Amino acid sequence: MNSGWQAKGQLSTNRPLCTPMQVFFFTCIVVLSVFALAQPAVGKTNDEAAGEKAPLVRFNAWGGSAQVNGYLQWVAEQVKNRFNIELQHVKLADTSDAVSRVLAEKASGNHNNGSVDLIWINGENFAAMKKHDLLSASWVGELDNFSLTNPDENPAVTTDFGEPTLGMEAPWGKASMVFYYRSAHLNTLGLMAPKTIEELLRFSQKSPGRFTYPVPSDYLGISFIKYAALGLNKDKRGLFYQPANDKALNAVLPSLWAYLDALHPTMWQQGKHMLRQASQLQRLVGTGELSMAFSFTAAEIPSAVTRFDLPDDVRTYVMQDGSLANVHFVGLTYNSKNKAAAKTVVNFLLSPQAQAKKQAVEVWGDDTVLDLESLSASDRALFVQDNIHPSALDKSQPTLLLAEPHSSWTDALREAWYERYGARY
Amino acid sequence: MFAQFTRFARWCLLLLLCIPVLAGLVGVAFPALGYFPAIGANSFSFDIFKTLFSLDDIWQMVWLSLFTGVGSTLLAMASAFLLLASFYQSNWLNKIQGLLSPFLVFPHAAAAIALLFVFSPSGIFARIAAVGTNSAIPGAGDAFFPYDAFFPYDSGGLSVLLALSLKELPFIILMALSVMSQPLVKSKLSSYIKVGTALGYSPAAIFFKLVMPTVFTQIRLPILAVLVFATSNVEIPLILGGNSPSTLAVAIMHWFNHIDLSMRLLASSAAVLQVAVSGLALLLLLGVERIVIYAGRKRLAKGNRRFFDRLVQCAAYSTVALYVALIGAVVYSVLMYSIAKQWLYPDLLPQGTTLLHWRIALETLATPLSNSLLLGILVSTSALGLVLFTLESEQLKPAGVNADRAFSVSLFLPLLVPGVAFLYGLVWFQQLVLQDAVWFHTYIAHMVYVVPYVFLSMAVAYRKFDIRYAMVAQSLGKTPWQVFYHIKLPSLFSAIMVAWALGLAISFSQYLPTLLASGGTIATITTEAVASVSGSSTRLTAVFVIIQAIMPLVGFVIAWYLPAALVKTGSKVRTSEKKSRAVLHGA
Fold first, then answer.
1. Do A425 and B489 touch (CB under 8 A)?
2. DSSP secondary-structure letter at B353?
3. Chain B residues with CB inside 8 Å of A132's CB?
């Protein structure tokens, strides 16, 4: 080799580079062999899942919140210690990615070896999964802790946006809509925080560009539309709790359109550009580009303040004309490989310990779905909290809760909105 | 023996590119024609296309894709050539290359977020503009950054166009420099330059009349790849673009992710349309090239010794200044956000620092980091091997014209089909075979994206390799393998390392391929980062942007300094050559 090289050495101007080349190839070979060795080790988690030892449960849940991620990490440690279950949080940017995946698996005939076990869903994703039979049915009743939610007395845990759950998904937490604002901004602007949907328009007219809402394909966006529709049609609320039809729509839409037509030009970016994702609302309030916004998890506001993602002049409150409220769920896919282990995990999620931990403001602050009346006194004590943060919602004030309209209203309102204001992608 | 092996590698590469993409295309074409049994659509028809073309905004979307894609590529090309024209003979070239490199290796998502950090009404530029005023509310009554400022989210697509060209320019410059540093081209160009100088042409005129025509034909292929990518990119228009309407690619992704699963049919047909739009963009750019050649030919022979010298200088310096300001602002705001406690508008400094967000991010990063490295190194190294052997087979036994053309087309396949569309089809295909081999699937999905770029980056250098060295060696009785290993690889070492680093960077930055092919079970830095972007914490996002920027940089630092360092220790004879190297070579 070397003699051959010398013969050519005179020809090449880059003679000394021979050694580096060999170094490079050597490095590559080392890297490749490291990979070859590492591959079985990495693959092991999957292989083991099929065996008896530490079954793997993949929980597909939105991963955009540090609190939720931290809580699920705690859950993973707990189920590992208690039940020897390997819980993997698959962090989704968008829950529909996982819905797509299950659908693709079904399309290709993968009926018992799915890659999604548990999935955190809300009404619309649930409706889609239910429609295409992507979820296991009637498994929730088997869970011991499900009875603690008092399902017979509490229809909210067995209906998801008016859609019966048929035991396809277990309730996990509860949320209601709250608004929050930068008190320093409002002082500078000389304005009070709006207390009703009508006041919100006057607020936005007086201080253009300080408020916006996400497009209705976002969960929080359509929730705002629902709140506006309910708030502007107080006399016709009954219509919202029956399936939507043209007549009902014609009755409620004119006031909604008049309102939004007036609101949009006063919004952030003059309403020409609207946010795609609700989480960006908090980001914009954090940077000061918006002065007020809303959320479905009251507890995320103070915890965002303690993490400096929101300034400390933020205050949280509930609109006087009502707060939209709903329950969110955990579904089990029809083609999950480890259904038994997945059910054990969900049963743990419904235990008083796990629910109390989740409700703690410093952890996540998501309201429990358990019926506190049906708990023992010691379990109930787990839920008591003190030290209210100045940015937190004052829960001592009475709140008028507005139930979610029948699920058909979601699509009806969204389609009507897009028809009127154009598709926003 | 070696020749047969290289031919085998060539076939492997072809199949690797074609099978996944064609499978993905089938997975898109069938639903586009109305066939998607999973949701009960069982008949073929053109109805979906009718629905697509009856949408109000569809032509506006197509226009935005074309405008931002073609516009940004033209802008980036123009600025790249202006920069080169001003600095190709100066020592500044190295500095400029170093300056632009961070933008090259920045993943698109991270770059878009970084631009949002500096340009938004509460960004660092707005804060600087607000110094001295006492407005505590960003955007309110501010002349420079009103709340309806044009930069992010403008409906005309200008902010997307600017962001795309900021990202493309470094890539074009790097490609041009790698061509100009090839021995054959280099010697040709330096004699051109001598002749030009002797005849009294100004440096800018020499560049545009003598250097550019030679260089441009060599980098046309990578530029076309950039163009297709720009017309179908999702991250930048998603993060910076307006949404009434958005570009076609964003709409496709939106439709694919739509809760109503039947929207997939529409998404698939739009994906087919996207292929046509990208094709049209290619034709437009080739048309522009024709016009420039036609118009240029007359000027070329006129004998004018100058070429807008002053203007070229000005434009080049302002481009550099823009990049310096931008990079400074981005680095400052991203670093500050990652450690900031409260940071109220219009303060230039946060009220305190904390490592809380770094801690939150790092706690979860060990596995994603090792996954990213493992995938990236494996993908990039094997892609490089395949590409080198393929290029070698081309030289050992040149394929026929038709085979060659077919090969180029298949190389462009993964760059022509928008990721969202063909990856969805690919996942469907992967579900049919080897369901459990997630690492294998992810590896393939990455390879599909990495191989073309490594090939494009490598081919320029490889095809311009002075074949006479190989001829002499062969005439002295060396086997093809010996020629390949002892002559070609050492001569091309720095180009090889750049291609390897590029492959690494591209593998690191893959979001959708990783997420879809692995079903989310293989978390990488990028999947974690994009998940954090959809979240609400500016500070956590800043941390992820930094980590995302550092990772590919490591690869490029190795690529740039390893050859140079090894050359320095290996040879002292070369010092005399250094000066001439500095003229054209980027390294």
1. no
2. B
3. 38-39, 261
pTM for the model: 0.75
Contact flag A64-B532 (C-beta cutoff 8 Å): yes
Quick count: other Cβ atoms within 10 Å of Cβ A109? 11
- d(CA B490, CA A139) in angstroms, rounded, equals 64
The conformational region for residue A51 under phi > 0 = left, psi -120 to 50 = alpha, else beta, is beta
User: CA-to-CA distance for B534 and B542, rounded, in angstroms?
Assistant: 13
Structure tokens belonging to residue A344: 């054990």
Closest by CA to A173, choosing from A300, A288, A258, is: A300
**Interface contact flag, A24 B486, Cβ < 8 Å:** no
> Torsions phi, psi of A94, nearest 5?
-150, 125
Cβ–Cβ pairs < 8 A, chains A and B? 288
Give the number of other CB atoms < 10 A from CB of residue A415: 13
Residues of B in contact with A423 (CB under 8 A): 55-57, 244-245, 251
Measured CA to CA in angstroms, residue B347 lies from A133, A228, B137, B336 at distances of 54, 36, 11, 12
pLDDT in tens, B61-87: 999 999 999 999 999 999 999 999 988
Comparing CA positions, the residue from B370, B331, B277 lying closest to residue B546 is B331
Dihedral of CA B194/B200/B201/B202: which sign?
A: positive
- HSE (CB half, 13 Å, CA atoms) of A374? 16
The answer, for A291 touching chain B at a CB cutoff of 8 Å, is yes
**Residue from B537, B569, B571, B576 whose CB has the most chain A CBs within 10 Å, to mutate:** B537
Distance CA A290, CA A213 (A): 11
Q: Does B330 touch chain A (CB under 8 A)?
A: no
DSSP per residue, B101-112: HHHHHS-HHHHH
Residue A91 is classified by DSSP as E
Query: Which of A139, A120, A107, A131 has its CA nearest to residue A61?
Result: A120
Rounded CA-CA distance A117/B520 in Å is 12
The CA distances from residue B334 to B16, B117, B548, B549, in Å, are: 38, 7, 12, 11
Instruction: Tell me, yes or no, if A363 comes closer than 8 A to chain B by beta carbon.
Output: no
Query: CA B137 to CA A210: how far, in whole Å?
Result: 9
Asked if B251 and A425 count as a contact pair (C-beta separation under 8 A), the reply is yes
Q: What is the least distance, in Å, from the CA of B465 to any CA of chain A?
A: 12
Q: Do A11 and B566 touch (CB under 8 A)?
A: no
Which chain B residues touch A222 with a CB distance below 8 Å?
A: none
Task: Give whichever of A2-6, A154-158, B129-133, B480-484 has the largest mean pLDDT.
Answer: B480-484
Neighboring chain A residues of B577 at a CB cutoff of 8 Å: 13
What are the two backbone dihedrals, phi and then psi, of residue A328, each rounded to the nearest 5 degrees?
Answer: -115, 155
**In terms of Cα–Cα distance, which of B337, B112, B145 is closest to B234?**
B112
Separation CA A183–CA A192 (nearest Å): 9
Instruction: Tell whether ipTM is more than 0.85.
Output: no
On chain B, the residues whose CB falls within 8 A of the CB of A43 are 439
pLDDT in tens, B358-414: 988 888 788 888 999 999 999 999 999 999 998 888 877 777 777 777 777 777 778
Contact A97 B515 (CB under 8 A): yes
Q: Which of A16, A138, A230 is nearest to B494 (CA)?
A: A16
